[in-house]
Specification:
The complex is a heterodimer of chains A (about 300) and B (about 450). Chain A is mostly helical. Chain A is about 70% helix and about 5% strand. Chain A is built from 7 helices and 6 strands; from the N terminus they run H-H-H-E-E-E-E-H-E-E-H-H-H. The longest helix of chain B is centred in the middle third of the chain and has 59 residues. Classes of the chains: A mainly alpha (about 300), B alpha+beta (about 450). At the A-B interface, helix 1 and helix 2 of A face helix 2, helix 3, helix 7, helix 8 and helix 9 of B.
């Protein structure tokens, strides 16, 4: 078949253009470290990468929530430790007050101390957490507990504090309401709360006279309260442990996602460099053979 | 002896003509659309007459004309493969633009950012910083949808320009071809003038086939009759009359028509750039429809979630997004971060249960995966079009090679011809010299 002169030139030009295009593509892959420049380069990879990107972004958002929840639970943990030691102290004070050897004046002093413990509880419950909210706040209310003018303390809001999302469909309750910590204690005279128990016993101590009945009931109630707080404390610990697990899983998942992403879209530099070398060798050879062939002409021999 | 002189002279004349043709081929070796020519030489037979029965005499050589080494079938192959390739290439151009339009603003990533910002608000519903971040993310989503919609509009506008240019070029090529037809009707067959006109005709037909598939028939004089969009399509050129092609956009679809001699016929191009244009218009409309569905579901879904919740002030949430003329024209109507309805009605400021509703909307609405599917679908079509275009490019190259094998100029061949005709020319000159010498020897007899 006859190759027309024009075709010889245009063929060579288009061949060299294709080779240059290939070397340029590899060059881009090397310099961007990405194998694919557009979704059409590999549609399956694009879809996988889109899912990975979304999962990674979700993971980052959830990880932030997990670490916030962890800090809130830690704060609850230390607060509850204080509550426990204060409750133990209150129990000791009540037992002490029950002693027959004490005078009314001495019992009043104990009452003052117990009122101090009550204040401690109120301020612990109202402590601001990492979000600036009352640590033991309920779903509603600006504070956890309110100190009334008559010296009693009541729960400000109602409801369970909101759980926060830590994964797809997974949530965790990072704090507990004051009512859950201090309230709902079964006593001899019905369900009561730590503040009422303490108010009642301090009133009896302040009134003077025999405190045996009041102190006895308060002692039992405070023991029940301590059991409840310990239970809440345990739950907080369990939730913190769950979060530690979640955080560890998230870290592994993030590492796995990154590994998958890299496997899908990162340029294998050594292969790419070898390919580039191959392409440029071919390009050089094409240029050399073109130069040789185009120099061949019968006209050179016409003398 | 005068015969010998005559034969010599005819040879000189014929080979001069042949050398001219070879020189013409050499000079036009790289001219686009030039078809290789040869000089057809015929032996001149001078008979003694039918009646005399005398021996046939030989009276030299004569130039019968300039032959054009064209192959109509191979030329038609080139046109058909060019039309197929042009269609795919136009499709690839549009689909590439659609792909950049859909991925440029990264709608999917912005949606993920928005929902993840909501996750952060859920952790701390009363704080202003996460709320501001969420509103910013909402603004980015609105901007991404709007920009993607605009980008698709731009692709459609570019496509219109391609379509308009295509029909204008086709019309003017038709006018030019009608003029060439006119010239061919008056040119003498076998002259280099006629060959030149035929070159022009074939070149125009090649250019036409890049715009639309053409069906060509030629008469004895070489005048082309052109139908667009296949053998039964509308007539564009017949003899020295030509029509005009028009392009009309109607919403998402485009159409073509040919006006010829007062008649208007709809053109359905099966190949060439115009076929790519109507295909591209359908693709753009499809992508736009899918994007608008995602955008519409997203804005109405988010606004519904807002409406069913309570904001930081305890009031029912106001609409977060407002849509303009099209569902993708989204603006952020909620400007106050405390207006985000994170809480359920009456549940207090620290509640985040309405954001859980937002998270379930994310799952049920599938906005992100729908966006990915939209991009992936378009990308898959683009990838297959590219593969087809590559194959068609090889087919076209093959067709061009086959045509050029016949009608292209090879300089080495021309060099051989040059030598051959030069030698024949010299030899004919020798014949004249010999005739003169022989005649002289008779004259020299004393």
């Amino acid at each position: 078949m006859q190759i027309s002169t024009n075709q010889f030139y245009s063929n060579t030009a288009s061949l060299m253009q294709k080779l240059t295009q290939s070397t340029n593509d590899i060059q881009t892959q090397i310099s961007t470290t990405r194998k694919y420049a557009a979704p059409s380069d590999n549609v399956v990879a694009y879809q996988q990468l889109a899912t990975i990107r979304q999962s990674t972004a979700d993971g980052t958002a959830y990880a932030a929530n997990v670490s916030l929840a962890q800090s809130l639970l830690q704060q609850s943990d230390s607060a509850l430790t204080s509550v426990e030691s204060d409750l133990t102290k209150a129990s000791e004070l009540v037992t002490q007050a029950n002693s027959d050897t004490l005078t009314d004046a001495q019992r009043k002093t104990i009452s003052t101390q117990l009122k101090g413990v009550m204040d401690d509880f109120a301020s612990l419950a109202n402590t601001r957490d990492a979000r600036g909210q009352p640590l033991f706040g309920a779903a509603t209310g600006d504070s956890a507990v309110t100190k009334n003018a008559n010296g009693t303390v009541s729960f400000t809001g109602t409801g369970t504090p909101a759980s926060i999302p830590i994964g797809d469909g997974a949530t965790i309750q990072p704090t507990d309401s004051a009512e859950h910590v201090f309230g709902g204690i079964a006593t001899a005279s019905g369900t009561s709360d730590v503040f009422s128990i303490l108010s009642k016993v301090t009133a009896a101590l302040d009134a003077g006279g025999s405190v045996t009945a009041a102190a006895g009931e308060a002692g039992t109630s405070l023991t029940a309260a301590l059991t409840q707080v310990t239970g809440v404390h345990g739950a907080v610990g369990a939730r913190a442990a769950r979060l530690d697990l979640v955080a560890a899983t998230m870290k592994t998942a993030a590492t796995d996602l990154e590994a998958t992403r890299s496997e899908i879209e990162d340029t294998d530099i050594s292969t790419a460099v070898i390919d580039l070398q191959k392409m440029s060798t071919a390009l050089q050879a094409t240029q050399a053979s073109f130069t040789k062939l185009s120099a061949l002409s019968l006209f050179d021999y016409l003398k | 002896m005068s015969d010998l002189l005559g034969i010599g002279a005819s040879g000189v004349r014929a080979y001069q003509s042949a050398l001219t043709t070879v020189s013409d081929n050499i000079a036009n070796a790289t001219t686009t659309g030039y078809t290789r020519r040869t000089t057809t030489l015929n032996e001149v037979v001078a008979g003694g007459g039918i009646t005399s029965g005398a021996a046939v005499g030989v009276n030299g050589v004569a130039v019968a004309g300039t032959a054009r080494l064209a192959d109509a079938v191979k030329a038609a192959d080139v046109r058909a493969s060019s039309a197929d390739l042009a269609k795919s290439e136009a499709g690839v151009t549009t689909l590439t633009s659609i792909q950049s339009a859909l991925t440029g603003s990264a709608v999917g990533d912005r949606l993920a950012d928005f929902f993840n910002a909501a996750t952060a608000v859920a952790a701390d519903p009363t704080a202003s910083a996460p709320r501001s971040t969420m509103l910013e993310a909402a603004n980015s989503v609105a901007a991404a949808f709007t920009a993607t919609g605009k980008a698709l509009d731009n692709v459609a506008a570019d496509l219109d320009v391609t379509g308009e240019n295509g029909v204008e070029t086709l019309t003017s090529l038709g006018t030019a071809l009608a003029k060439v037809n006119d010239g061919l009707g008056r040119a003498t067959a076998g002259t280099s003038g006629a060959a030149q006109l035929q070159d022009q005709r074939d070149q125009i037909l090649d250019q036409m086939s890049a715009i639309s598939d053409v069906s060509v028939t030629t008469d004895a004089a070489g005048r082309a009759t052109v139908r667009l969009g296949g053998g039964s399509g509308p007539l564009l050129v017949a003899g020295s009359a030509s029509g005009a092609v028009t392009y009309v956009r109607d919403g998402g679809s485009v159409s073509f028509a040919v006006h010829f001699a007062g008649d208007i016929t709809t053109l359905t191009p099966g190949g060439g750039a115009l076929a790519g244009v109507s295909d591209g218009a359908a693709r753009i409309a499809d992508a736009r429809g899918q994007l608008e569905a995602i955008a519409g579901n997203f804005t109405s879904g988010i606004n519904a979630v807002q409406a069913q919740g309570a904001d930081l002030g305890g009031k029912a949430g106001a609409a977060m997004f407002t849509t303009g003329v099209t569902p993708t024209d989204i603006t952020l109507s909620l400007t106050d971060p405390s207006g985000i309805a994170a809480a359920a009605v009456g549940a207090g400021t620290r509640d985040n249960s309405n954001l859980a509703a937002l998270a379930s909307l994310r799952t049920s609405g599938k906005f992100e995966s729908d966006t990915t599917t939209l991009v992936a679908g378009s990308a898959a079509t683009l990838a297959s079009r590219k593969t087809i275009a590559d194959a068609q490019s090889s087919i076209r190259d093959g067709a061009v090679a086959a045509r050029d094998a016949v009608s292209g100029v090879n300089l080495d061949n021309e060099a051989v011809d040059l030598m051959r005709f030069q030698q024949a020319y010299s030899a004919s000159s020798r014949v004249i010299q010999v005739a003169r010498d022989t005649f002289q020897s008779i004259l020299d007899i004393r």
